[in-house]
Amino acid sequence: MAFPPILVGEVAELLARAYVLASSRGGLTTFKPDADVDHKDFIVDRRGGDRHGYVQVKCATRLRQKQVWCVARYLPDQVPTSARVFYLFAFLDLGSIELTRMWLVPASDFNRLAYRRRRGSRIELWFKTPARDRRWERFAVDRQELAARITALMDAAPTEQEIFAPAKSLGLRLVA
Predict the structure, then answer these.
(1) pTM as predicted
(2) pLDDT, position 175
(3) Topology of the domain covering 5-169
């Protein structure tokens, strides 16, 4: 039975989450937003801490011109720029059901290095590797080091602004 295309993205995300949990030895946790409306497939959080990152997984299941090709499509004003957003580009081997090649790319680097194309009202940002100019090589990551690389990116990202008195601003009253 052929692998249902509708499952490809979900399987890649689940494998990526498993790799993060396993390679962190429980030092990181992951969770999935209720809906994928914000281009964040899963959230990574340091156990016992408040440092977090957002991961968008893009995968290919076949090579095109001997390259892994992945695309992210956005409205022009919705391209992620946060230092806490990371793309995980991967090759999903459907025979072994594993991510055999991965690249962890911060959003700022992806936005700068990606091939761009306008398609209708959207902007397409393309990841294609291997590239002649080797632009993606430094982002290659294996399963064992995935959590450490995510942790380093989270630690390097500036602290997000805190929301002061959220209950007041939302018209809520917190009860102790």
Answers:
(1) 0.87
(2) 53
(3) Trna Endonuclease; Chain: A, domain 1 (3.40.1350)
